Structures are given as C-alpha cells and as structure tokens.
Amino acid sequence: GQCAAHCPTGAIVERDDVSIVWDALADPDKYCTVQIAPSVRVALGEEFGYPPGTNLTKKIYAFMRRLGFKAVFDTNFSADLTIVEEASEFVERFVHGKGELPLITSCCPSWTDFMEKKHYDFIDNFSTAKSPQQMLGVMAKTYFAKKNKIDPAKVYQVSIMPCTAKKYELERTDEMMASGFHDVDVVLTTRELARLIKQSGIDFKALPDEDADSILGEYSGAGTIFGATGGVMEAALRTAYFYVTGENLTGKAIDFESVRGLQGVKEGTIDIKGTKVRVAVAHGLGNVEAVLNKVRAAREKGEELPYHFIEVMACPGGCIGGGGQPYGVSDEVRRQRIAGLYADDRDCAVRFSHENPEIKRIYAEFLEKPLSHRAHELLHTNYTPRPLYKN
Ligand code: SF4
User: Transmembrane stretches, by residue range (predicted)?
Assistant: First the structure.
C-alpha cells in the first residue's frame, strides 16, 4: 500500500475493490450485508478531518444503511465469538492437558502465513479458531440467513478491514467456505471505505448516530480491543478466568495493563486463583522470533515453558496500525487510535465476550456450546507447513 502512494511514476497502483461493492449493491439478486472491524472505527475519521482515535462506529453504521446494505453487522461481535472459542481452547489445553502449549493466536492472516512458511514447528500451537472476519461471514450465511428466511446463496458479505492481508484470507483454505459459500465475498480497507464514502456524495459528518442490526451486531468491551496489540490476549484472559473460576473479574482487575502499550514484546503473569498463567504479546513480525526461540530453547532442554499463551500481530501496534489504514501513521497516531479503543471498552456496559447477550443467544439457538461439533465445522480451521526453502 505505502509503495503505491510513493511510486514516482504511478506504475504501482493500489488494489481497489470499491467498484465491486458498487456493483453488488446495485444487483437486485444480492442481499448485501457488511461488517466493520474494531480498528476501522478509530482511524477512518482521519480521512475526514477528525483527530486520530475518534470513535465513529455509529456514523459508519448509519452510512452503510444509507448506502443500501440490508444488514449492518459488527466484527466486534464476532471478535467476542472468536474469544469464546479461543478461551475454551486455552482452558482445554491449560487445565485439561488436551493439546499443545503455549497456545498461539491466529487471527492475523499475515502472521499465519509467516508461521506456515517459517515457523511451522509451531503449527500444533496455533489456535484453530477462525478470525473474527471469517466467523462473522459464516454466521451471516448460516444462522442469520436461516433465522430471517433468506437464501444464503444471495447473502453477499462485505467486510471493512484495516488490512490488505484480509483480502487474501478469504481464500486461505477450504474452511473459509465451510457453509458451502465464501464466508466473506469482498474486503475493503479503511482507505477504500473512505473512497466509497467520498464517491457516494453522502455528507458523512452530518450523519446521525445509529445502532448495528441485531443479531451479529452487539459487542463487548473485550471485542473492541481486538484492534490493539495485546487486546486479543486481554479479551481471552478475561473469559478464560471466568471459565476456570466461575467468577468474573471485577474493578481494576479487568484491565490487564501488562499487555497494553507499544513495547515490541510484552510479558505478564496472570494469577487465576493461585494458578499462574504466563503470557507474551509480540507485534511487528520482527519481534516474534525472540519469543518463539525462548519456547524452542525450553523445549530442547526439557525445561518449564516460558509462556502458556502468546499473541502475535504482524503490524506494529496491532490492527490499528494495519496496512489498509489511513496514511501518516506514527507512534503518536497509534497511541491515539489505541486510546480510542480502550475508551470504547471502558464505556461498554458488557466487558466480557462470554457475557455478550447475542453471543449467549447464538450458542443457545444454534452453536450449542463452545467447541461443539457445529462450532468446529463452521468456526475452526487448520494450517499446513509451506516452507519457503527446501533444505
Ligand atoms: Fe492485518 Fe496487520 Fe491486523 Fe494482522 S495486525 S490482521 S496484518 S492489520
């Protein structure tokens, strides 16, 4: 993306899928739905003169509805779904000894790609939970379509992401079509969304605040912080704590300060009623190796593992600093966007993914329970070693 902006001759043109979305919206045979990723809401405003970190969630919902989307969903909802599945996986491995530790997050497709090429000795450590983008798509084409008596073949899912790699994720494996349809049909980056808004002629700043559609729209504070480095870890720990103890964290204990901030590698120990969980968070792919090497060294020597749970995001700062976000990113801009997400978390009535009322409903009505047969079929994936160089 940055190359396209800086190419002196204009020979490198940024991929632009905006026209695909215009065509879909004009097609009477398509039932167009849309989802918006956590980090988009605190960065889009920069294209319209708002300071970085301004949370425009409700204006984006209103815009999507004006544009003709029949249902407006939120990736924050499915971030909660990813967390419920992933925290359950963590408990299976950590408490019941079923599966490899440390568990490693897999929701960043650039990281997943890098792992399959370079760090595939960690394949069994990867969470099999799909990313929030894919989970939202598959729920729209199964549960939502069924509930609203819509032909799933007509549901067309547009996804607004901070990320160019999310375009590639749509075709990553056959599991990205687990329902028989592509989970998601097209991805627009935040910059492409800004173009869509400008082309629409709609006065974005004058739009009122509106809510997302039910169901697949409601989110918890844990879902929204997915967009910042450390956020997935923090969200997962809040839920894992509940699964292990049967109690929710309260007060300041809800905020896991040790995994927040822009330091390249963050480490923390979380006390779950006497049991210590050791975690590491790396962002920026250059920071990953040191973390993985610590695990490799411990394995070789048969020593205790340095970590039980690792979060990795390819982009410095996490998705708020993604390759599809408005240009001009500095650490100061990253900090402001991150502050926007943590403010959203603080303001949420519900701070835990497992307490999201729509998440509870979707399990009661459709998925049964985390890691159920149906959840595995629709919400999980697998990984394959794809070494770049053969020895
Ligand atoms: Fe995409 Fe970057 Fe987020 Fe990974 S960290 S999902 S590459 S925006």
Answer: none
